[in-house]
Amino acid sequence: MNEADIDAVAGLRVRGWQSAYTGIIPKPFLDGMSAVADAKKRRAGFASSRGSVVDLVAVDDDDMPVGWVCFGPYRGETDAPSPGEVYALYVEPALMGQGVGRALLEAAHRHAASRQFSTMQLWVLRDNSRARQFYAAAGYAPDGAEECDMYGEIAVTELRYGRPLP
Fold first, then answer.
1. What is the pLDDT of residues 41-73, one digit of tens each?
2. pLDDT range class, residue 135, cuts 50, 70, 90
3. Whose CA is closest to 139, among 88, 91, 102, 92?
4. List of long-range contacts for 133-139, beta carbons under 8 Å, 24+ apart
5. Residues contacting residue 47 through CB under 8 Å, at least 6 positions apart
6. Domains (ranges, CATH) in the chain?
7. Are 21 and 30 in contact (CB under 8 A)?
8. Is the distance from CB of 118 to CB of 78 less than 8 angstroms?
9. Would you say the pTM of this structure is higher than 0.85?
């Protein structure tokens, strides 16, 4: 990913949230998401995290981003040796189920292994069964860790998944 991709990736992320998390995250929160605000946040993070965080994009025939994965060192406590973490993976909602996410995740695994990560961790919403099935098919399994985020009055539980890297 380069800086020119940030606006497209921000739009992709917002559309991804609004599609994947409908019925899980409160509608007012999803409706209030802004690609412009997300791009501003992403631009600041992109500039400050060079070298430690990797952003990969999948592009269509017109070189427009249609998928994005972001990963780097694990940000929390874990017993896993040399852990990496998938921070985000989003695909254009109309292209879900067509292999874009799988290709991005496999590319992230290759890059992470070359950076000497021996495992990958990620957090997935407990009620997002489609994502949980996707990650299970990619070799991830829940390890028992849970976190809870509040969206207004609604508590949303995330489960930590992990898998070894080759």
1. 988 877 776 678 999 999 999 999 999 999 999
2. very high
3. 102
4. 134/101, 134/102, 135/161, 136/161, 138/102, 138/105, 138/106, 138/163, 139/163, 139/164
5. none
6. 3-117 (3.40.630.30)
7. yes
8. no
9. yes
